[in-house]
Amino acid sequence: MFGLIGKMRAARGQRDAVIDVLRETTGALPGCLSYIVATDPADADAIWVTEVWTDQASHKASLQLPQVQAAIAKARPFIAGFEFQVETHPVGGVGLPASEKS
Amino acid sequence: MFGLIGKMRAARGQRDAVIDVLRETTGALPGCLSYIVATDPADADAIWVTEVWTDQASHKASLQLPQVQAAIAKARPFIAGFEFQVETHPVGGVGLPASEKS
Predict the structure, then answer these.
(1) Where are the domains of chain B?
(2) What is the enclosing helix (H) or strand (E) of A19?
(3) What is the third-level CATH fold of B2-50+60-92?
(4) Which terminus of chain B is more exposed, N or C, with fewer CB under 10 A?
(5) What does the pLDDT look like over A7-34, one tens digit per residue?
């Protein structure tokens, strides 16, 4: 599996607008096992996104999907920047489809 | 919902031993919606854990469960330290039980 943990910063006051776009878009992307959007109680403009994909190719392919391209275009004006991103290799746990548990 | 994103460092060469303990323990903890364990391709002794709980009280209570206390005791000799931890407030996404999606 392929994972990403990232923190993005919304333009002041636009956090919830970005979150709405993220949540509208990620319902059924091929290969997406987990995509959790969170606010940060210590940082009002921050958004944490933790992702698990079947593999890196699925993630990369998702960025080319029309609905994802549209979401990126829609959210871009509300995003000030990306502050943190780490790639991970998820190995298991709770909250993944049963077939991916090893 | 209550979330945690954390990075722990295993003692040299003990990463997989720690992961085994984490995965054995988190199967069915009350209030645990997601608990994903991942390795870090850029850091051989690192373990990333991303957690989602129904609320902070569920997470706190889990630390007192006998199986969790036993796991902490079992893993402690293999853990060198905790390098990063952020508390989040998950608001939704893919990979959470349907009842928690809002």
Answers:
(1) 2-50+60-92
(2) helix A15-25
(3) Alpha-Beta Plaits (3.30.70)
(4) C
(5) 999 999 999 999 999 988 877 799 999 9
